[in-house]
């Protein structure tokens, strides 16, 4: 379309448009007529071949019934007078349904059809070389054979060539007539337009707005000329006013330049102050985020002390009890008052104490191992292989001191896959999500449900987290990930928990996070991030 508008004069564009429209219309009509004629010609060819096949099939019935091969061959030889028939075969069927060749006619070296394909041509079909037809031969309602005919398509090719030649000739003559009419139409249309162009060029070159266009054509161009003359009158009036205004504008520009310069200096100074304030705000925000992270680490240490204290205390009590029994046994042995009953009781009690100490020490070792791995992950950004279900249990183990104080129910559905990722970021995300639900999602003495589902899909880890707490209003949900936003303002909330979660997901894990909530319907997070390939 852009190439058409760059052709040149309107005269040439009009000629090309008329010729192109005529060519396209005539081509479509000629093509449609040719396709219809070819289709009708094919239909007539099929009908003619079917009629000949039905007539010949009727005559071949007594020859098939009496096995008269010579008469059938002689009847088939009648096709030699028709140069369009490439081959014709008569096939005989027996009571078992098998098909065998009975008689045939071949023009030149044309291949005989396979008996398996005979029944597939009961409806005439066109191939690249011929029209193929199979006709059932029946006697008293029983099928006794087939007549199979191949007819060449040379007539169709000749008809197609003739149709194309006629369409081409008609198309050429029609284009010549269209060109003659277009030239005449251009002369009638463009003459008054040329007058108007001459006036516009004179106005442009001489800047003379007093000239007027001719209005004696008595058509739409006369209306256009009158409108143009009226426009020239208004332009002349406007031109005089413009000269007066320009003089005033020159004076105002001198004053405005001084004002703009002064305002520019003020804006530059204000921008410098704003940049300093923004840098200071970002530094403060960074320090608050670091303090929040360290506070989380302090809570982890407190949890370690509380959880490890219980199995260690049990172990100390058991070993103290065992030491007391040992002293009693040693005293009885030295005083030679040791009996078999005392020995049996000592062995039983010491076995129980050893079992208690073993379980307590294994529990403490398990807790220390979990705390050690989680603490290392929290203070490190290294990528390492993580078995998702085991690591989630380790995270929940570190949160037991908090979870024991509430009666909330945890529903866990985690896949057992091992992936390479930033384990510390996952720890901080899960911890902050659970703590947010406990502190903000549930009221005191309310038993809530926290659901965590982690699964792997197409090299991405998906975390679906939800609780059935109070939920958030649309306004609060829109500000959820903003720094310093909290629903516990004045009650110890810093407003950095969800902001830290957002930064960890988008920066440490290179993922995405989205939240959904309604008042009274809880809060849910959808997190997904790519697995790190190593």
Short description, anyone?
The chain is an alpha+beta fold and 534 residues long. Helices cover 61% and strands 16% of the residues. Among the domains are: 173 residues, Beta-Lactamase, CATH 3.30.450.20; 150 residues, 2-Layer Sandwich (Heat Shock Protein 90).
Can you tell me about this structure?
The protein is α+β, with helices and mostly antiparallel strands. Helix content is 61%, strand content 16%. Helix 2 (10-65) packs antiparallel against helix 3 (69-76). The protein starts with a helix and ends with a strand. 19% of the residues are buried.
Strand and helix layout:
Blueprint: H1 2-5, H2 10-65, H3 69-76, E1 85-93, E2 99-106, E3 125-126, E4 130-139, E5 142-152, H4 154-206, H5 220-334, H6 340-378, E6 383-387, H7 388-398, H8 400-403, E7 409-414, E8 418-422, H9 423-441, E9 449-457, E10 460-467, H10 474-478, H11 497-508, E11 512-517, E12 523-530
Parallel strand pairs: 7-9
Antiparallel strand pairs: 1-2, 1-5, 3-4, 4-5, 6-8, 9-10, 10-12, 11-12
